[in-house]
Amino acid sequence: MTEEVTIKEKRFNKLIAVISVAIPLVVALLFGFKIPNAKPLSFLPPIYATINGLTAILLIAAVVAIKNGRERTHQRLMTTNIVLSALFLVMYVAYHMTSETTVYGGEGPMKYIYYFILMTHIVLSISVIPLVLITYSKVYLDDFESHRHWAKYTFPIWLYVAITGVLVYIMISPYYQY
User: Fold this and answer.
1) Closest by alpha carbon to 74, among 22, 136, 159, 119?
2) Domain of 119, in residue numbers
3) What's the pLDDT at 1?
4) Predicted TM-score (pTM) of this structure
5) Checking CA distances to 147, which of 38, 49, 129, 134 falls within 20 to 30 Å?
């Protein structure tokens, strides 16, 4: 590894650390802030659930593309997934800044299943941020071996987060106040 690459990697790592801490903190702060007199953006949850579903599909398509040697397609799909994830985050925060929190109204075992899915979704959605950024940075640094190594961990976690995002929406949607 050249000195120039090492310097670039150190810069990336610092930026990744800052972003990985800043995003959850900013989301937590904004989640607790309600815009006064704002009309609830109740149309957003099905849109951002759809974005999660599309992300899951495109993640799988990206893996199929790279396994078939279609590197450019893989790159475009993964970049699209990062854009979709950012778009999801903006919509998610906008919804929660204009709407009251929806409480799951189910009973019995389904309630525990819902909260298990929700909690693992939240924890892994936070942990996937640095994983995605590290994996993506390895390509930029032309370190494809490290990229493949990190992708083995990033892909299943990101896929889980995308799929459980849809499941959480499906399970809580009957309880939304429109």
Assistant:
1) 136
2) 3-34+43-175
3) 58
4) 0.92
5) 49
